[in-house]
From TrEMBL:
This protein's name: 2-oxo-3-hexenedioate decarboxylase
GO annotation, cellular component aspect: cytoplasm
Chain ranges of the Fumarylacetoacetase-like C-terminal domain: 87-256
Annotated InterPro entries: Fumarylacetoacetase-like_C, Fumarylacetoacetase_C_sf, Hydratase-Decarb/MhpD_sf
MF-aspect GO terms: 2-oxopent-4-enoate hydratase activity
Superkingdom, natural source: Bacteria
Amino acid sequence: MAAIDYDMLANELRRAEQEKRELVRLTAQYPEMTVEDAYAIQERLVDMKRKDGYRIIGPKMGLTSAAKMAQMGVNEPIYGYVFDYMVVPNGGAVAMSELIHPKVEAEIAFILKQDVKGPGITGAHILAATEYIVPALEIIDSRYANFHFTLPDVIADNASSSRVVFGSRLTPPRSLELDVLGASLSINGEAKAFGAGAAVLGHPANAIAMLANMLARKGGSLKAGDVILAGAMTEAIRFASGDVVFALFDQLGTVSFRAT
Ligand code: 0L1
Ligand code: MG
């Protein structure tokens, strides 16, 4: 059985993203790869991006819906990191020439006013530590052919992180009921998906709390000023060049982009 070379695999994933090239899932060659191996690869990938000069905007949660977890046969979500080069201005353009086979999902993001360190963090702790809620469109773009991957593959691939568009309105969480807050996602004016905050582990703050507790296992924490995606409220939808993608969130405003 070949030893898993974390640096080599992280570099392969980095180059696949840079060159917009699909990879065969890593576990086809390394079926023994564990979740721990996968996060070790992700850590190397994140370090490589930082050495390339990119800055982390915040960690993100993925696979937070019951449907996605059931599909992957897991009972815990995953995390990855959003970098500055991934951020597209609200109403701006997402260049398809830079991506492989992107999909979009409606999410909400939390901006913290204080550091949060697990273990033992609850959704209530997160709401108390949150300065603002921001609506977002996350664009995921797995580096694996046809989005075919197992759990370790997608963890190693930085949870398919690719682009994100944040809304322009910041709303304090105090007056919001994020579990019953709805979002609709449309493409070229046609409704494609609907969802509510409860699709994200019952309440999006629960996802951020779980993230704090997962990071704590490795001595990590959430930082004041982080912009943290909680996970998808809607299913992920394919889009194509020329599409206008628009999301409307109850109480939070709108987010949009053009695919060019
Ligand atoms: O943001 C996410 O939910 C990442 C999920 C990763 C799985 C996928 O690429 O569909
Ligand atoms: Mg997501």
